[in-house]
Amino acid sequence: MANLTLVQAINLALTQEMEADESVVLLGEDVGLNGGVFRVTEGLQQRFGEHRVVDTPLAESGIMGAAIGLAMNGIKSVPEIQFEGFLGPAYDQLVNHAARYRSRSRGAITVPMTVRVPVGGGIHAPELHSDSPEAIYAHTPGLKVVMPSSPYDAKGLLISAIRDPDPVLFFEPKRIYRAFREEVPEDEYTVPIGKAKIVEEGTDVTVVTWGAMTIQCINAMDSLPEDLSVELIDLRTIYPIDVETIVESVSKTGRCVVAHEAPLTAGLGAEISSLVQERCFLHLEAPVQRVTGFDTFMPYYKMELDYLPEAPRVAEAIAACAAY
Amino acid sequence: MANLTLVQAINLALTQEMEADESVVLLGEDVGLNGGVFRVTEGLQQRFGEHRVVDTPLAESGIMGAAIGLAMNGIKSVPEIQFEGFLGPAYDQLVNHAARYRSRSRGAITVPMTVRVPVGGGIHAPELHSDSPEAIYAHTPGLKVVMPSSPYDAKGLLISAIRDPDPVLFFEPKRIYRAFREEVPEDEYTVPIGKAKIVEEGTDVTVVTWGAMTIQCINAMDSLPEDLSVELIDLRTIYPIDVETIVESVSKTGRCVVAHEAPLTAGLGAEISSLVQERCFLHLEAPVQRVTGFDTFMPYYKMELDYLPEAPRVAEAIAACAAY
Amino acid sequence: MPIKVAYQATIEYMQILDEQGGLDAKLARDTLTDDQVVMLYEHMSMCRRLDEIAFKLQRSGRLGTYPQNMGQEAIASVALAARPQDWMVPCYRENAALYLHGLPPEMILLHWMGDERGNQIPEGLNITPMSIPIGSHMLHAAGIGWAARIRGDDQVAFTFFGDGATSEGDFHEACNFAGVMHAPVVFICQNNQWAISTPRSKQTRSETFAQKGIAYGLKVRQVDGNDIFAIFRAAREAVADALKGQPTMIETLTYRLGDHTTADDARRYRDPAELEAARKRDPLIRTRKYLESKDLWSADQEEAMIERNKAQVDDIVARATNIEKPKTTDIFDAMFATIPPELARQRDTMQTNSLGQFPQQETLRRGATAHSPTQSPAHA
Amino acid sequence: MPIKVAYQATIEYMQILDEQGGLDAKLARDTLTDDQVVMLYEHMSMCRRLDEIAFKLQRSGRLGTYPQNMGQEAIASVALAARPQDWMVPCYRENAALYLHGLPPEMILLHWMGDERGNQIPEGLNITPMSIPIGSHMLHAAGIGWAARIRGDDQVAFTFFGDGATSEGDFHEACNFAGVMHAPVVFICQNNQWAISTPRSKQTRSETFAQKGIAYGLKVRQVDGNDIFAIFRAAREAVADALKGQPTMIETLTYRLGDHTTADDARRYRDPAELEAARKRDPLIRTRKYLESKDLWSADQEEAMIERNKAQVDDIVARATNIEKPKTTDIFDAMFATIPPELARQRDTMQTNSLGQFPQQETLRRGATAHSPTQSPAHA
Ligand SMILES: Cc1ncc(C[n+]2csc(CCOP(=O)(O)OP(=O)(O)O)c2C)c(N)n1
Ligand SMILES: Cc1ncc(C[n+]2csc(CCOP(=O)(O)OP(=O)(O)O)c2C)c(N)n1
Ligand SMILES: [Mg+2]
Ligand SMILES: [Mg+2]
To answer: Omega before A240 cis (within 30°)?
Structure first.
């Protein structure tokens, strides 16, 4: 058991899976000697060699497409896309190929690939280094989409992802890469894909969130009146959504707030809100509230904190929902 | 006034805008001599010359990126992407550049471009020729997204799109390219972007849909009991959504069904459902129902009609919603 | 020396069997045996027959849009250069090579009949399904070849694409990856002069497609694409190079004798004279001429073969058409190794809307109704 | 002739001003005047100073991540070959060229301070904002040049990118579009040997980056990228060619003397000896040597210039730092020419959740409460 950051927990998961299975191969821009621009793959090339931790040309479609080919021919590929904004050039390979091969070939060809991508805002980065595109990929059949909010979950989910026989998009919230530490077992363990986590139990309002927003929601709860009892759910998996956990909670609380960094319109909050309404209609005491980024781009960093739904905005929405 | 198909109405709009404004330039794969694979641009190269109706290399990112550059330097570019499935390679240019230039340059650089893309299923086409990705682009700030369901609207909306100072994604539902004809004025007219159309007034259930699904919804209504009064709204514009029209309708009916071809999860139906819930909560008599494609790919065509939410499935949902 | 040469390149074009059936004996040495040529001729003829029948099936509504392969059958030669363990990563105009590598021909028909089972490549066969997004699949070949190198497997990945496909960015990235990764890949550009209605001259300003390989340190060849000898020779050399970590780009100069697909009408954009000229370069004609000139083929044999091909193609068509309808549940079950609960619900109900699927809500509803027979004021 | 030459190419490398400040007089003829060389030297020195100060600003928390341009200042020469109406479509390591083309230097600082106003290019200046997605902006240059051709405007589009950028598919598509459209475009690949930590050898297997232009029928040059004469000469020739419909690709051989950005530490992956060797090829050093050898520059002038540059850079920094904070409403108002109603609502409320924003619901709610003081049974 060690006290690790998210970055360290991911590094540990990669190390252990590479030890355990020699068909696991990492690839991406600067993932080798440099250990990745966030140092997530630090030391891995030194340990496993240039054949298993591979610096690629600067070409995201190439990385994704080659990783698909690797996965089709016996390699469990773990490509890294340097920032979520650069999933753009890889979009076609991810959505039109990785996600579809199993279905289009009726199982004859599969793509056991885990795409690692730092995601989200709050680190004062340049344009296209702070977005949250998870809804896009939740709307893409054939992909599993995961986003941990803690070192413990990150390790367990990443191991699950690498072992998953289907493509998994593994989003790493960069805002909390090093924001805090947590006890992470040395031993191998998994956190199942598709299961949300009840971070805190409560009875008055259900808050559904994921990734770095989990921390904002925890902070928001701290500022709310003592007697307001919030149940906080961290989705952990974006697709498939753990509908059961959400429905159970809102059936109890009758109120729901969903919070995410991405823009409002057609974001994943809309899906959660719709599901809650469909499944908990007769329990609902108030409309489900969405606290999200605005329908603008994540602005350049001088104004990113005006854009992001920080804790105060979340708290306000929870209070309003509870008071309705 | 002539009785035109959707294809003809679009062709007419293009012809008239090219006549009226010599900075309008069409480009795309096979749009020239061949008139496009759906013959939408038929005759235009013959009429306006090879400089204004340009056959491009087979490269969607190139088409989109070059069209952006054209638009930045005085040309109102109208690129065609041959099928919605091939927006994939152009995704980065569309989402990370076209949509962002105005905002990133605080208005110094704008992209007056209209991207024409045939969309949707039901024509027995090969893989990636039958998808409905509108939710993806509704979730992309900076893009306007339009999808007509009739020849009249198609002409008027396309003229609005070409004249719009911002990038517009113009989806053409191929299933109704030639499915029916409608009176379309010869004269120039516009249909405003951002305004939904009440196709039929009613008092019991509001049905929200767009594109070719409008026809399925009309067919569904025909099979419902006479005394069930359905208000049918055709969104026409996917972004910005005409929230007002929807809210007004559901405030009256208290019930809402939304229907689209795209997969359920994180589809645009979720956005409509959430908006209705947020704005009409106290009016709602039943949970908003989503009748959509399944969370699988559009299957190859032998089974596409099992996938698509055809009229019977829509009718069933309307009836269930009304009976709730 | 203020001006010096930084780089120089020369690309050769190779033809071994000419349009009249004449062979360059020296270049042909150690290439195809007589038996192989006969076999290829028979195989190409069968493919041509299948292609014609597929066209008719489409016209009679029994097949969807279909891209004829007519005129490009010599590509079959590549399969002779390939070993059983090698991969084929195709587009849709190299059916002749795929069949020879072992793909049951009815699968191609099934694919175009809108049936995913046409892509369900049999175990042990290293072929990927035809790729619909043009230009994108060559990256998979790069990855497949690279995987073989990492695992130390003796495999080469052949990938096929058209002249139009070379304009896509993925073509560029695939070649570059194969180059830097020393992946055993052979890129085969079937330059049939057209991409739907777009002529080669509008596709790119480069003099050849072969020279595009220069950008990635690939070995580069241009060959007559209707010449089974030249294709074989280039492909065999490419296998040897690939196994040494040197990928190759081969441009085959050929011609699309048919429309782009059955949905296309090439008369709208193509000069009939060009087509006529191309017909004379047909690989079937020149192969037959060659065989006849060497007394390896007779009119009797031709006749017998035609009968055999008819029967074989009828058989193929029967296998594709007589297959039972796929199960609707397949579209759900094929998505993941294990179906997630909500997707299972969609499969089991065949609905996406959810009224009536949640009995606990029904109970609540009945409760509510019991309390307030008229609508609750909040719902007025 | 069964084997014939299908294509041949030779690429030349040009250097006019060598590392010792020696000039090839013949090649230098009709290139830069003495005044221009002095001006370029002063300009490059100012850029170097600004770069150093930017680094310090970042370290003291007054600037975000910043990519130093150090060592690549000779690119400024391109701006001398450009006419005022020509376009610059840059990445982030050609600041020296942008400033000379007219861009106020504080805009670059503003950009890296996380302020969109750094991209608000002044009216009349044909420059696009620095492009963050590597390799993607060259397509805009292709479109911009093509637009000029369509409109009959006398404009050339220069676009700049790194060695790494050439691996992106968009690079390929941009070159191909410019080629087939006969667009007046000049592609300038600043090969500084590194893409973050990825060395040139892992980026591609091709011997030069210049040769990548062969794939598109571009005119192709390789020049010493620290040589203001060679860059000028190549760029000026490229302008002439561009206006005749022939795009050019120029590879400038240079070196990134700094870290990739302030977020990077090149010592992790780069041999210090390589850096040392590169320092000797610094464009500032050789330009000064040349000027001194021709008695066009003295120690006094150097000293005076240093003072001028200090003052100028202080000024630039002041303009970037003293700007008022942007308005929050800007992020909404900048999205479209006309703001849609729902976006206006978000701007005006600074909320996305909507409780309390719809008075008519409040009325209903109060009505409901009046009727049933406890919760309605349907909501039990
Ligand atoms: C990415 C993408 N864009 C467009 C299409 C539509 N399309 C299908 S085939 C084709 C032309 C292909 O030309 P080429 O690569 O020369 O192959 P050929 O058909 O000549 O064998 C086009 C444009 C597609 N399938 N994929
Ligand atoms: C599409 C994309 N992928 C990755 C990045 C991250 N990134 C920023 S700069 C860079 C290296 C660029 O190298 P090169 O093109 O050689 O330019 P240089 O920095 O050397 O001037 C990378 C990988 C990016 N900005 N855009
Ligand atoms: Mg072709
Ligand atoms: Mg570089």
So the answer is: yes
Residue of B nearest to A293 (CA): B141
Model confidence over D177-205: pLDDT tens digits? Answer: 999 999 999 999 999 999 999 999 999 99
Spacing, Cα C160 to ligand 3 middle (Å): 11
Q: Which residues are registered as beta bridge partners of A2?
A: A184
Q: Judging by beta carbons within 10 Å of its beta carbon (0-12, 13-18, 19+), is residue A65 exposed, middle or buried?
A: buried
Judged by DSSP in three states, B281 sits in: helix
CATH code for the domain in which residue B279 is found? 3.40.50.920
Pairing mode, strands A182-184 and A2-4:
antiparallel
Q: Summarize pLDDT for C57-94 with one digit per residue, the tens.
A: 999 999 999 999 999 999 999 999 999 999 999 999 99
Q: How many domains does chain D have?
A: 2
Instruction: Provide the terminal-to-terminal Cα distance of chain C, rounded to the nearest Å.
Output: 91
Which residues lie closer than 8 Å to D335 by C-beta, 6 or more apart? A295, A296, A297, B102, B103, B141, B142, D343
Residue A128 in contact with partner chain D when CB distance is under 8 A: yes
Amino acid at D111: H
C179 to chain D: closest CA residue:
D205
Verify that C296 and C193 share a domain, yes or no: yes
User: What total of structural domains would you count in chain B?
Assistant: 2
CB A249 within 8 A of CB A279: no
**pTM confidence score:** 0.97
- Could you give the C-alpha distances from B103 to A20, A260, B107, D16, D301, in angstroms and in order? 48, 22, 6, 43, 44
How far apart are the C-alpha atoms of C103 and A102, rounded to whole Å? 18
The Cα-based distances of C120 to B126, C24, D304 in angstroms read 16, 41, 76
Q: Rounded to 10 degrees, what is the CA torsion of C220, C222, C226, C230? A: -70
Q: Are residues D309 and D335 in the same domain?
A: no
Å from CA of D216 to ligand 1 middle: 19
Structure tokens at D83: 């006419």
Task: Measure the CA–CA gap between A259 and A269, rounded to whole angstroms.
Answer: 7
Domain of C183, in residue numbers: 13-321
Q: Which residues of C touch D172 (CB under 8 A)?
A: 169, 171-173
> What is the Cα–Cα distance from B52 to D17, expressed in whole angstroms?
45
Residue D362 confidence (pLDDT)? 65
User: Cis before residue C272, ω within 30 degrees of 0?
Assistant: no
Q: Which residues of chain B have pLDDT under 70?
A: none
List alpha helices for B164-225, DSSP H. 213-222
Q: What is residue C368's predicted lDDT score, i.e. its pLDDT?
A: 54
| B122 shares its domain with B248 | no
> Do C350 and C255 share a domain, yes or no?
no
How far apart, in Å, are the Cα atoms of B302 and each of B83, B307, B312, D189?
Answer: 19, 10, 19, 49
Rg (CA), chain C: 26
> Nearest-CA distance from D87 to chain C in Å?
23
Report the CATH number that the domain containing residue A75 is assigned in CATH.
3.40.50.970
Q: What's the complex ipTM?
A: 0.97
* 8 A C-beta contact, residue B93 and residue C240: no
Active-site position among B51, B97, B124, B129: B129
Q: Flag whether B190 is in a domain.
A: no
- Rounded to a whole number of angstroms, the distance from the CA of B43 to the nearest CA of chain A is 32
The set of residues, in sequence order, having a beta carbon less than 8 Å from that of B264 and lying 6+ positions away, is B270, B290, B292, B293, B294, B295, C346, C352
Does residue D288 sit in the same domain as residue D362?
A: no
CB burial of C85-113 (b: ≥16 within 10 Å; e: otherwise) equals ebbbbbbbbbbbbbbbbebbbbbbbbbbb
The pairing of strands C87-89 and D219-224 is unpaired
- Chain D CB contacts of C170 below 8 Å: 169
Q: Are C248 and C242 in contact (CB under 8 A)?
A: yes
- Token output for B133: 């990705």
- The gap between the terminal CA atoms of chain A, to the nearest Å, is 45
